[in-house]
């Protein structure tokens, strides 16, 4: 079976680990969000790609959910001793090496998709990880605080300001020109089912959906999403701040409507959100909290099972229509 | 008193520490060798400038003579885990931060002299450290081994091959176009005396002397050199391999002749080399082994004393000639 999954950072990566456990024989392609990529100290940092790669490759800091295990922070301290900004972004020494390799390869002319493949040669994540686009896009957030109304990089809003200053607008700079990376559309076309993990619906999944052609390709497939909202709150992270910025309620219902039909064919919600529904979408209620790897595998299995059932049903419907 | 000193790496830096101790009230300008600079992993590394800066700024690994004290090597290990080459150059984590800052500033358009000044803002070496040139020059070495005749970067010959393969030629690539960095010629013109420390006469001092205008400016000043060769062997390092490459004997006499007159006015040799001499040069014999900081200060004091005496004598001679 060929599965495509979109993915953001921590939540997506943990879900993918469950997906690998639930579908050990599947050929899994992950389309990773690059909207929160940032250049720091001249080095290109791709937080979501790295979180997926480290998590699936066994190099993640399990407690933190991002960055490397057994990490040290000598380089960061030294950069601060030189007065280099920014000092609010926590890069560890092991992580620095990844960004040095990536930047070296990008400067040598390799596209991000090939760089990511080269980095994964080391990590062997067990999935094919493709950035959503080789073109540079960056999520910026319009805020209005004591310094006035201005756009800041998503990471500055998310990490430095901890999304505490309300976002007036969230923009993917470069979205108009960005094309899907090589292999993205083909992987979707060849997929048996597509899964949307409980990643941030605005700045992770929503960002990927903005890349020309990706939404349209997904609409032709059987897509099952896992709600990132349980009982009116994000499973993890600060998705509520992002949803509020685009005028969407922090509910499993509102996120389903945001994705909409025909994009989504199936939607997994938590048991307390069992009333959620949308025309054309099959909604099922399941325990959705990823306490541990086993729970993540259970959720992934439920998503794949639903997708396979929907796909078979659509296949039969297609045959009957002939 | 205004002193200008040229400098290479370890030997030069230790001598300069002695010079600072011997002449605490002097205004010292150091013209640093950049011929052994190298770009590694996309980062610009200036080994000699950094050795001077770390040594005088209290950040040096005292035992090794180069690199940072309390150093760790996490980034290097991680780069090796990615298969990144070269793996023969030992960059520590603290040191990496220096190269990240330097590269960031160079990429932003600052010339190396301003970058060096910014780095020294942190280290406060007690001297004004200026690279010999803002223009990129790199020493390459022509060798002939089982892989055939070819030119390698000086660092590859020095560090990876440990200068064990004979050098057929030593070339400063970019020398023809390179101009002295801002402040270099002015510092020489305004100097009361100039000191050549016991740095490598070929790839450190010899490199600086190749930058257009520097030798000519020095010839107008009172210059005292400290022989890097004692009893037919380098005080430290592998200067013999470099001297052999350019057809010069490894003796205090041959190095004096290499520098020549009118460049050098005074020459300090070790007691066993007391017979050395050259027309127009005052040679004095002194203990020249830098066992410790005290010995380095003693040698520096002897060099400055000789230079001051020669300068006064030349001043009188100049007045008498009027």
Automatic annotation (TrEMBL), chains A, B:
InterPro entries given in the database record: CofD, CofD-like_dom_sf, FbiA/CofD
Ubl conjugation among keywords: no
Keyword list, A-Z: Magnesium, Transferase
Sample GO molecular function, one term: LPPG:FO 2-phospho-L-lactate transferase activity
SUPFAM superfamilies xrefs: CofD-like (SSF142338)
Protein name in UniProt: 2-phospho-L-lactate transferase
Organism of derivation: Planobispora takensis
Name of the gene encoding the protein in the UniProt record: cofD
